[in-house]
């Protein structure tokens, strides 16, 4: 199957034999083995806390996408590290700076003399 | 792990529009589950980390083709399972190659050194078969069973998915899914009991 399709295919599936009535009855009859498997494959404790692992995964995926899209995605360096809030903050700071410069140097500005 | 339908529809819409922040949300929502599934399937942390990233790269590339015939989570799981299959195949071939190299090296190692090496790997006799060791035996055993059986068993017993969800993810018929789970448990039980030297359950 390709990942492009919603419809999965498994050619080997057709060759699998069906279970007999007796086997079907036994299918979920051994909870001890399932419990042991679940316990054994429980998510291992990691040196990194979960939020840090999430961040690391996201950063790695972004890096791969940036590289493979030749910078088309996640290419500006902002979207990978900053939230939209920073854009607003920078815009506000710029606005205040422009107003201050205008007040200082514009027609009504303060004179040094 | 699934999002509510309404939220999922909005997320898919934003993803299809290549909204990078939507994709960040997707990775944050599904990353942990995908990462755990991949690790269970492959049994190798470094490979699992790399493959988890690859799953999301594929999701990003293919999101435009997602037609909503299944849940988004099921679709992501399907991509993960398929990539795991391919990676497992690749790793088996690579391991076989490494084994050949090891055997070639072993033939060149002097007998005395080989004896010392053997002594070093014998388990300490004071180590009892504790819970951790039993878990290790099961972890090793799951990697020894037929890969096509293993994926169904993990999806059922560890991920706790329904038979219908497993059918959707693997593309197998209902009878085949049940048959593979049954055979997988039988193989696993046999290997674990042989290693433990006692019956389970």
Keywords:
heterodimer; A: 113 residues; mainly alpha; 4 helices; 50% helix; disordered N terminus; B: 201 residues; 9 helices; 0% strand
Description:
The complex is a heterodimer of chains A (113) and B (201). By secondary structure, chain A is mainly α. Chain A is 50% helix and 0% strand. Chain A has four helices and no strands. The longest helix of chain A has 22 residues, at 84-105. Chain A is rod-shaped and about 95 Å long. Chain B is an all-alpha fold and 201 residues long. Helices cover 79% and strands 0% of the residues of chain B. Chain B has helices at residues 5-16, 20-42, 45-62, 72-108, 111-121, 131-144, 147-158, 163-170, 174-196. The longest helix of chain B is centred in the middle third of the chain and has 37 residues, at 72-108.
> If you compute it from the alpha carbons, what radius of gyration of chain A comes out, rounded to the nearest whole angstrom?
30 Å
Order of helices and strands of chain A: HHHH
Radius of gyration of chain B: 21 Å
Count of alpha/pi helices of chain B: 9
Enumerate the spans of chain A where pLDDT stays under 50 for 5 or more consecutive residues.
1-5, 9-15
DSSP strand tally of chain A: 0
Provide the residue-averaged pLDDT of chain A.
Answer: 76
The assigned structural class of chain A equals mainly alpha
The largest pleated sheet of chain B is described as:
none
> Separation of termini of chain B?
30 Å
Look at the helices and sheets of chain B and give the structural class: mainly alpha
Q: Kindly state the percentage of residues in helix of chain A.
A: 40-55%
Largest sheet of chain A: none
Globally, the shape of chain B reads globular
């Amino acid at each position: 199957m390709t990942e492009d399709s919603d419809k999965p295919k498994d050619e080997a599936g057709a060759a699998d034999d069906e279970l007999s009535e007796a086997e079907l009855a036994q299918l979920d009859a051994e909870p001890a083995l399932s419990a042991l498997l679940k316990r054994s494959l429980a998510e291992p404790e990691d040196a990194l806390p979960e939020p840090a692992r999430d961040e690391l995964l996201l950063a790695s995926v972004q890096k791969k996408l940036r590289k493979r899209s030749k910078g088309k995605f996640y290419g500006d360096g902002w979207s990978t590290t900053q939230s939209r809030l920073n854009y607003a903050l920078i815009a506000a700071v710029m606005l205040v700076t422009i107003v201050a410069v205008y007040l200082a140097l514009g027609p009504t500005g303060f004179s040094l003399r | 792990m699934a999002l509510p339908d309404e939220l999922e529809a909005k997320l898919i819409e934003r993803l299809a529009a290549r909204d990078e922040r939507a994709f960040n949300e997707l990775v944050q929502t599904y990353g942990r589950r995908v990462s755990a599934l991949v690790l269970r399937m492959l049994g190798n942390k470094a490979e699992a980390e790399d493959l988890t990233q690859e799953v999301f790269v594929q999701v990003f590339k293919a999101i435009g083709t997602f037609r909503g015939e299944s849940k988004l989570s099921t679709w992501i799981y399907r991509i993960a399972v398929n990539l795991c299959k391919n990676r497992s195949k690749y790793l088996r071939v690579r391991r076989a190659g490494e084994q050949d190299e090891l055997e070639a090296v072993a033939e060149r190692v002097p007998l005395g050194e080989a004896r010392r090496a053997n002594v070093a790997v014998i388990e300490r006799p004071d180590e009892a078969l504790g819970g951790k060791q039993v878990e290790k035996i099961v972890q090793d055993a799951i990697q020894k069973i037929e890969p096509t059986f293993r994926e169904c068993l993990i999806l059922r017993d560890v991920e706790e998915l329904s038979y219908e969800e497993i059918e959707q993810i693997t593309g197998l018929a209902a009878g085949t899914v049940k048959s593979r789970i049954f055979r997988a448990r039988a193989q696993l039980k046999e290997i674990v009991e042989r290693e433990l030297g006692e019956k389970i359950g």
